[in-house]
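User: hey, got a sec? need SPW repeat-containing integral membrane domain-containing protein folded
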Amino acid sequence: MLDNSREVVRDALVLITGVVLVTSTIWLPVGGDTGVSGAILILGMVSAGTALWAMSSASRSSHWAHVTLGVMLALSPIVLAFPAGLFAADMFALVGGVIIAAMGVLGVLDSARAAGSSRTVVASPTQLRARVAR
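Assistant: Yep! Here you go:
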C-alpha cells in the first residue's frame, strides 16, 4: 500500500506541475513570442496527460515518459533558443522540467528496487519454484 501511495503522490505532483505550466502561459511574460509559450503549453499539457494516464493504469512506462518529458522541458530554453530576456519563462521550463524528470527517476528507481526484492525458492525435488517477496 505504501508503494502505491508514493506512486500516486509522484503522479499527482507531475499533474500539478503540468497544470501550472499550462496555466502559466496565460500570464507568463514572453514578449509576444508564441514559440516560447507554445513549447511550455504543449509540454505542460503532455506532462499532465501522462500523469493522468499513469494514475489510471498500472503502467510502469509512465516513469520513463516523465523522465523524457522532464528533460525535454528543462532543455527547451537551450534547444529552442528562447530569446534573451525571458528569464521567467526559462525558469518555469527549467524548474518544471526538473520536477517532472525527478519524479520519473524516482519512479524508475522504485520499480527497479521492487523488481529486485524478490527471490526464487526451490520448494521440492521436482523443481517447483515460488517467488517470495521480501
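Quick note: Residues 36 and 81 are 9 Å apart (CA to CA). Let me know if you need anything else on SPW repeat-containing integral membrane domain-containing protein.
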